[in-house]
Amino acid sequence: MLRNICSTFIYVLTFIFILSQEQANGALHGTTKKMVEEANKKGPYLGLVIPNLFEMNPLLSNPEYKSTKLVIDYAGRRFRFGKIHKKPVILVMSGMGLVNAAVATQLLLSLFEIEGVIHYGIAGNANPNLHIGDVTIAEYWSHSAMWNWQRYGDGPENPLPFEGDGGFTREIGYLKFATYSSNGDDNLLNNVWYQAEEVYPVDGTPEQTQQAFWIPVDPNYFLLSKTLETMTLEGCINATTCLSTPPKVTTVQRGTSANIYLDNAAYRSFLYNNFNISPVEMESAGVALICFQQKVPFITFRALSDLAGGGSASTNEADSFSGLSAENSVIVMVEFVKLLAGYNRKLLKFI
Q: Signal peptide span per the entry (predicted)?
């Protein structure tokens, strides 16, 4: 009897241990696995990757969004199911930064039947021709904090470590810190050279990488988004506080991401003058790189909430207008989904 009880106890402990290991390792099992399988029967979905609750809440309260009440929690993420203009969508909050954005996007694509990904939120503005409240739709995205930092004494003519044979490159460009010294002297920080990301295409040979710096959004999505440039956006926080220039929707050539909150006029100008970058923020390139590798169509809508250091020295515009900008990004995203819902999917060339 005692032996049987001990055997049963050991069996139960072993089962619990295996189950806990399965959960700890992020394995899909049990109820969650069944919920995912049932959800995918109703797909495919548009995946909406959203940086934080500040940018998600305007969508949750938007009358065009209808929640189906289905929520699936997995690996620390919450996947919310709903519809926008009858188009099935899945919402997931990524959290701040490139790693969080990439993880959330990969989980979304790995778990669910996704036909395309839309990313939206607020951003800083590096383009002096644009204004706070404008919603930008960039054709290309880059990660601009992948650097090769040269040792002091080396210059642009000196090769970088591991340059060639698919290693580091001087082709993209560099930033010379001494250019921004207030007294004009040399600077021990020397130069940083911008580098491309290594990507692993889903249809490529495993462990063989490709280089990618400017990641294009889906060309059909981008073409369709141009029809949104005539939209009217919100320009006032309240009856007494309005933007000096009415905001607009505009397609731009380039945006960039880095795990840096940019509030510096000199670097803002450098990015615009050297790379023709408009929106600057912390997540879009993470979404772009994952979708590029997985060959899933994507597009990003970023509303400009501040001037990335180019405004007044005494105030930060984001403190005043980030809420308005978040609302505008949702308004434009929702309108795009409505267009997509009525668009001929064969023309989108979904992969």
A: 1-20
